[in-house]
Design goal:
Layout lengths: L2 H16 L19 H22 L3 H9 L1 H31 L5
Helix pairs in contact: 1-3, 2-4, 3-4
């Protein structure tokens, strides 16, 4: 393998790692939240929990994170930072939904 091939391979790996999927950051408030029924609020709370679990999983030791740490550690820092942001956003969403549910006397 020539030197230019090695450099091209490394740059391709960096580009691939920087484009890795990061956990989705959910909005705390969505239009129509206050109009949700108790059952719908429960479903939204479960969905927010799934987002939080996915973000926690991305923050852990994954093949992508190991590769990022070995080849391009800034991508690993971005993944961890985004994971924290996604976890906090999901928790904020849950808190918002619980307040609405409490105001409607929902048992969620």
């Amino acid at each position: 393998m020539t030197k230019s091939s090695k450099i091209a391979l490394i740059l391709t790996a960096f580009a691939g790692l920087s484009a890795c999927a990061a956990p989705e950051v959910v909005s705390e408030r969505k239009a129509g939240d206050t109009a949700l029924t108790c059952a719908q609020l429960g479903a939204q709370l479960r969905e927010a929990e799934k987002f939080k679990e996915k973000a926690r999983a991305e923050k852990g030791v994954t093949g992508t994170n190991v590769a990022a740490g070995l080849f391009f550690w800034p991508a690993l820092l971005v993944t961890y930072s985004n994971s924290e942001e996604a976890i906090e956003a999901a928790e904020d969403r849950q808190e918002h939904l619980y307040k609405i549910a409490d105001g409607k006397n929902c048992k969620v």
